[in-house]
Design brief:
Blueprint lengths: L9 E7 L5 E8 L10 E3 L4 E3 L2 E6 L8 E9 L6 E8 L5 E5 L5 E11 L4 E3 L3 E5 L1
Parallel strand pairs: 4-11
Antiparallel strand pairs: 1-2, 3-5, 5-8, 6-7, 6-9, 9-10, 9-11
Length: about 130
């Protein structure tokens, strides 16, 4: 009933070929489930910004090594990834983007990525570049 119950358990990865023959292609173990929330602070609520955008969030302190990844998408029906900045230090609580976004409507998300590659994402926050 809880996702945390799978931590430490082994799972087999099985595949079937076209003749329905089954192969065990690997075993994995869930090392961690990231449950803590990431809280974006700005920009949000369709805030209007210029060509310099300062993305800010509350400090994330889960007690294990991690880094941030910032993704910025066009705010359209079929969003396009406009910009991705990976390997932002876990010590940072903001990241400034200067002159890399054209005037348009966007949204951004912040990812926490731990040393095992586990990820957790913030909820999206909209902003407008004028």
């Amino acid at each position: 009933s809880s996702i945390s119950a799978i931590i430490g358990k082994e799972f087999s990865i099985l595949a079937k070929d076209a003749s329905n023959k089954e192969f065990n292609i690997g075993i994995l173990t869930v090392k961690r489930v990231i449950r803590e929330q990431i809280e974006p602070l700005s920009p949000l609520n369709s805030e209007i910004v210029g060509d310099t955008v300062n993305f800010a969030w509350t400090r994330f302190t889960p007690g294990y090594p991690f880094h941030y990844m910032l993704q910025i998408y066009t705010d359209t029906v079929d969003p396009d990834l406009e910009l991705e900045i990976d390997d932002i230090s876990s010590e940072d609580i903001s990241y400034k983007v200067i002159g890399r976004l054209n005037p348009d409507n966007y949204f951004w998300v912040l990812w926490v990525i731990d040393e095992f590659g586990n990820r957790a994402r913030s909820s999206p926050r909209k902003f407008i570049v004028e």
